[in-house]
Write a structure and sequence with these properties.
single chain; 364 residues; alpha/beta; TIM Barrel; two-stranded antiparallel sheet; 16 helices; binds coproporphyrinogen III
Amino acid sequence: MRESPRSGTLPVMKLQNDTFIRALLREATPYTPTWLMRQAGRYLPEYNQTRARAGNFLALCQNPNLATEVTLQPLARYQLDAAIVFSDILTIPDAMGLGLYFAEGEGPKFERPLREEWEIRDLSAPDPAVHLRYVLDTVRQCRQALAGSVPLIGFSGSPFTLACYMIEGRGSSDFASVKKMLYRRPDLLHKILAVNATAVTDYLNAQIEAGAQAVMIFDTWGGMLSHGAFHEFSLAYTKQIVDRLTRQREGLRVPSIVFTKGGGGWLESIAAIGCDAVGLDWTVDIGAARARVGDRVALQGNLDPAVLLASPQAVQKEALAILKSFGRGSGHVFNLGHGISQHTPPEHVSALIETVRGSSVAYH
Ligand code: CP3
């Protein structure tokens, strides 16, 4: 193994299972690859044990040994075709100094949300090698531990989704202060988004440099915007990132996935920004989405995560319907339409993975 000062020790080897990367690039695969958003999480008892050892969720994210351990947990149970580095989208605003914390049972909060104009003017993109080093260390450790078995996904929030938490200071059902700023002081929101776009670009490129083999941008809240505002305040900044992403690493393409929850009305414009794949939530019919985007991008999705709460039979029925709707050929990565619920019985996930693996062969 060769030591490189820029990347650390990276095992340069062929992937044993590259179905996920191939599907993102719309190349032929023997079956439809699967991974699940939040596949390492509270529905797994072993995750809860490791989290307890770490003390809390943030401490778990910041401990590369334990973060690597939980990244691998779902792969030990299920035949998944990709790993996703265990972290959170809110690491960036935390690195900007906003003070992320998780109050038990209440979701993420910031000690110092952006309230004053001078705080916004002072905002700058963190250096990932310094302030997000623990994430890059986790990426490197995950790559070592995976040893070429399946690809590793790096990720970030979109500039707009990060701004939602930075302004509101916590989750919200309507992000009213964000929308107020959008209509009252669009200049201030644009300033935050420009800094976030630089921060996300640097962060994703650092993850790629550390070993991430595909990247995903989570635009969880873009779907609450009006048509015009989505294009101006969310998609334009996501495009800036995609334009500046490292395209190739270790001689392989590094595909990008853009997921806008509630973005079903804008699939054509999302597909046009230069990403390799578009993530779909469960409100769209994947076959209709495929007809709309043609062969411009691959599609990822889109089982309603609530189906996993029901029964193995329901899981099987709904998964088969998605495979059938997408139809023959490559360009589909099976996933949920949003993160897995903490109340999911782990054996329902087995039913899902086995159904997709077994029944998708007929479509390839
Ligand atoms: O997919 C994976 O397995 C990778 C890990 C991952 C997490 N968060 C771990 C996590 C990823 C990709 C995320 C992304 C993320 N985080 C998003 C975008 C995707 C989405 O779900 O919309 C958002 C909006 C966040 C912010 C965030 N982090 C929220 C709103 C919460 C609370 C949600 C909840 O279910 O309580 C978190 C915490 C969080 N991030 C957990 C996990 C496993 C649960 C924390 C715990 O263990 O207590």
